[in-house]
Design goal:
By secondary structure, this protein is of the alpha/beta class. The chain is globular and about 50 Å long. One of its GO terms (molecular function) is chitin deacetylase activity. Its cofactor is Co(2+).
Length: 455
């Protein structure tokens, strides 16, 4: 994948449509003029939002109107206190340095800084140098995924990436860029299918939408880090890259009570320097081999037909036996209504093509997905047989020591042939669980805090 393609993905500026009275269907209130109907509808929406301001995760999860879902509650006290005390960097801006009052972060960074691989940053503040591909050696000395899709590090002591899952005929299921403020319909759908997934959360989104982030834990999904500002990680200095991961881990811990042991680099941009920093923070790196490119529709660089073709290619490979020995991971997003609805629409076909669909950590038998030992995740066998996790029998990254252990093999699995992809069947259509009608609200209030959208 060339840098010119990567660069287009970084920031998408939005042109927001203006809602005029004529935009509303006149049939909403047939006895009123369109302008009067619009005024009444807006008043009802405003009243509904006022009456339904969530006060906890459960009340947020019960909302069905996306406008209300995406109205900032601003009443989660831990986040309010942390922001007031400058415990986090400015949301959506790249981390420029560790905060002056962060003695814990400074100590952790100092402890690792002398052993970080001597690889120069490939850009400035998360933006890659435009000429980097022309000068980067063909031998790929840094195991730089962006130009070489390298997943086996060349620096000593750096663990390999997870780009597929060891369980045969299994899909490692997950979604980047959350939590999306309007994701209730999508998460409701996953719950109806008894389907869990790996959610790669952006730190700034977690601060913006704490109750939505908490829903992932409440529903039993696995949470991984997806950086603070969603920039190209190899284009940060060591300290900045550390901060992008560290403050996201801190935000997730503050909001959900757990500290992840996994992460995914935005756009897959990682090299051995960044891998090492993440590993010293107790994080293993998750990539993919199949890409839906669903985010590109909102960016204007792909069509829905092209995205569907990418899903179809994965299904065809599964049906052809391509995953009879090793499973797959596909890159998808909860970025906006289109990406979430497309996931819903394709779930039935994926369920038919794969024997099992599970969170990535489950496929790796990561029974302790977080630093905190009081949370236990199901083994692969337990998940596919709908059995409860076994408390006190956790395996996983040794995150408590500050380094991540390699979480699993990419060549062998448990050998299980039992179970099913899910205990229910997806309806797979917008008529069953529709999020397409939420598109304006998601664009305005979703991933990017109203102004711009990171993919």
């Amino acid at each position: 994948m060339h840098f010119s393609e990567q660069k287009k993905r970084l920031v998408v500026t939005l042109k927001l449509p203006l809602l005029l009275p004529s935009s509303f269907p006149p049939s909403i209130f047939p006895d009123m003029s369109p302008s009067r109907s619009a005024a009444v509808l807006l008043a009802l929406l405003a009243g509904s939002a006022w009456a339904q301001t969530p006060t906890n995760e459960a009340s947020e999860a019960g909302l069905t109107d996306p406008a209300t879902e995406c109205t900032p509650a601003n009443n989660f006290a831990p986040v309010a206190a942390a922001v007031a005390s400058s415990a986090f960097p400015s949301i959506w801006l790249p981390v420029q340095s560790l905060l002056p009052n962060d003695s814990e972060g400074a100590a952790k960074f100092a402890a690792m800084s002398g052993s970080i691989p001597n690889i120069a940053p490939k850009g400035v503040l998360g933006v890659l140098n435009e000429t980097i591909e022309d000068t980067y050696p063909a031998s790929d000395p840094d195991c730089w995924w962006t130009v070489a899709t390298c997943v086996t590090p060349k620096a000593p002591g750096v663990n390999p990436d997870i780009a597929s899952v060891p369980e045969p005929n299994t899909l490692g299921y997950g979604f980047d860029d959350g939590p999306n403020c309007s994701h209730n319909a999508f998460y409701d759908f996953l719950s109806e299918q008894k389907q869990k997934a790996t959610m790669y959360y952006i730190g700034s989104n977690v601060i913006d939408w704490p109750y939505q982030a908490q829903r992932a834990i409440a529903d039993g999904h696995e949470i991984c880090v997806h950086t603070w500002s969603h920039r190209m990680m190899t284009a940060f200095t060591n300290e900045q890259a550390f901060g992008e991961l560290w403050y996201t881990m801190q935000a997730i811990k503050l909001v959900t009570g757990v500290t992840p042991t996994c992460w995914r680099p935005p756009l897959g941009d990682v090299d051995d320097r960044i891998r090492y920093i993440a590993q010293q923070l107790g994080l293993f790196t998750v990539l993919w081999k199949y890409n839906s490119n669903d985010w590109e529709v909102s960016a204007g660089s792909a069509t829905p037909a092209q995205v569907q073709a990418n899903y179809n290619a994965l299904v065809a490979d599964a049906q052809s036996g391509a995953f009879d020995t090793v499973g797959a991971i596909i890159l998808t997003h909860e970025l906006n209504n289109y990406t979430m609805q497309t996931a819903i629409d394709n779930y039935k076909n994926l369920s038919a093509a794969f024997k099992h669909i599970v969170p990535v950590g489950v496929a790796l038998n990561q029974t302790q997905p977080y630093v905190e030992s009081n949370y236990t995740q199901q083994t692969f066998e337990q998940y596919i047989n709908n059995e409860a996790a076994t408390p006190g029998n956790s395996t996983g990254s040794d995150a408590g020591t500050g380094t991540a252990a390699a979480p699993g093999s990419s060549s062998t699995g448990s050998g299980s042939k039992s179970g099913s992809a899910s205990s229910g069947e997806a309806t797979g259509s917008s008529s069953a669980v529709s999020v397409r009608s939420f598109s304006l609200t998601s664009v305005v209030l979703g991933l990017c805090g109203i102004v711009a959208c990171l993919v």
